[in-house]
Amino acid sequence: MAFARTPEQIERFRSLAAPRREANGRKQRPTTSAGRVEARKAKDDMSETEALSVALSQPHRRPFKSSRLDPKLGMRDQRVGYPIGRLYLEGQLTIDQFNTSHRYIELYERYAHQVVGVAPKFPCQAISDAPGGKGTGREMTFEEADKIKAQWHEAQTALADTGEWSACAGALVAIGVMLKNPRNDAELGALRVGLNALHKTWK
After folding, report:
1. Is position 152 within any domain?
2. Domain count within the chain
3. Average pLDDT for residues 134-152, to the nearest whole number?
4. For residue 159, which of 191, 187, 127, 188 has the smallest C-alpha distance?
5. What is the value of pTM for the model shown?
6. Is residue 176 part of a domain?
C-alpha cells in the first residue's frame, strides 16, 4: 500500500480522491457505457416517495383547506396542479365553470393546431388528452375541420355577446391555456363571465 510522504504526493492523492467535475463545476458525467448504465439506473430508482415529496414542495401545492379536495388524495389531487383546478377547489369557480373550461381548452388547442395550423407550446396538461389533438398522430378530415370551425365560431360569438370579448377570451387563454394565475379580480371576473356564457351556449 502506498502512502503519501511529500506535499506533492498528498496533493496528488487528494486530486485522485476528489470527484471529477465538468468545466461548469458540475460532477463529471460517466464516460464509459457501464458508468452511463449505472447512472441511468440510479436516476430511475428514485422512489415514488421522493418524487411525491418534490411535487408537494412546489409553491402552488402549499396546503390549503377545501371541502372539494379528494379526501383520499389531499394535496396530491391533480386539480391542485393548475390554476383552473385551484380556483375550483378554492370555491371561486362552480363545477359548471370548471367543466366548461376544460371543454374550451380542448377546443382552443384543436382549432389552433389542426385548423389554423400554428399553435404555441401549450403548458396545459388537459390538451395532451384532447381527441384529435397533437398526440393522436392522424390527420383531421374536412368534415372534422368544419365541425371544429363551427364550434369555435359558436364559442367566440358567445364570448362576444357578453360585450367583453377581449377580456373574457384573454382570461381564458392566460389562465386556462397558459396556466397563469389570475392577475387581479378583474381578470378572474372576466374568466367567470366567459365561462358562464360558454356554459349557457353549450348546455
Report:
1. yes
2. 1
3. 77
4. 191
5. 0.62
6. yes
